[in-house]
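pinned: reference chain
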Amino acid sequence: MKISRRALLRGAGVAVALPFLDVMRPQRASAAPADPKRFVAFFVPNGTDPGAWHPRSEGPLSADNLTPCLVDMKGFAAEREWPAGDAIWQDVTMVSGVDHQAICSDIHSPAMSLCAHTDGGGQAVPRKATLDQVLADHIASETPYRSLNLSPTGDTAVTQGFISFRDGGQVEDAFRDPAAVFDTLFSGMSNPSEQMTDIRRRRASVLDWVREDAKRLNQRLGAADRARVEQHLESVFELERQIQSTTASSCAIPDAPPRGLELHGKFKQMIDLGVLALTCDLTRVLILQYSNSWDLSFAGYDLPDGVGDWSDHFISHKLGDRDRATDLDGLPQAEASRIANARVVQTSRFKVRRFAYLLNAMKAASTPTGNLLDESLVLYTSENGDGDSHGRANMPYMLAGHVGGFKTGRAVKSSSAPTGALHCSIINYFGIEMSEYGDPKSGPIPGL
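pinned: its structure tokens
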């Protein structure tokens, strides 16, 4: 049977027009796939005290075997602008024994914290893309924002104020103020639920037109061509189901954040806005950098053991370093050492509580297929392992979430594997098959 050119063009709703519909792009923000994958990096400076941080052995975590730095993973009370938090130890896998020493030649370089390729003894700036950007190449798809980098630090030095890079040391810019994040992402979206409902209604009507057009065209096709059209329509109907499922998304826009907040208030607002951006599928890659290596302090939090107004950097160095809390100088050595160690535990616990706030916020954010944490992998990282010595041979990594079937509630030890092994393990959970990764190259961490 011959089909005239006019008849063929009338049937182009099946053959031509569909590829140009938004709904035919299954990884767009407006039509998320059934199994979206998201990555979040959470950076805190100055490492920790490895002896008080890392679990004593591999195996299951429990509320009874958490180390001193991790006890708040059982839950904690409200703290200034931060609400009380639920237990998160079941949502986290602790990773120890990863050697970052070979990657970075500088003693303090947040820029290298997401990198698994050596800087070659250079300026401590990644020469290859950081982990978040590697993943963005595969999971960002056509979301409005390939990645979102949020950091309240005012430091714009390339090694201190940024932790996300593309190949060749090309820095990914970062938002420094939550009000600017809100204005950029959500201004004008006064009622996103109604707007999204209208969009879904229009797209559903387009699909109805396509279905009817296909029926008309099928009357003039042979059996083989009809089968091809039916196969094509099956994919269309799958997209239709995906559109319908987006009605369950809890994408509710809050009021604009206040301006002029200090660092902790800014970071909390950035976490909230970042989680909202993930929920609304504006991005699938979120980078949260709490501070540079110098500016994080705990003024106003009344932490135990005399942390006071000392900066995190001064607390991390304990005794003997020039960048130390000098109020311990006149005490007997044993007493000064006890207090200095206790202070690092307190500041490490503080950072864990902030990480717990992020995880609880992600668990509370519902999506069509569950919640954000189920669809994500969240990496807790720092530029150092031992904050006192600047040692990076045993980094304080935590992983949370369940993307790709990742298992939590456990401790995993590597045998001095380079950072590339950790990143290789993470990348594989996103369905990107890699046998080895990084420089030096390494395969995944066994058991992770």
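why pinned: Residues 333-364 form the longest helix (32 residues). The first strand starts at residue 38 and ends at 43.
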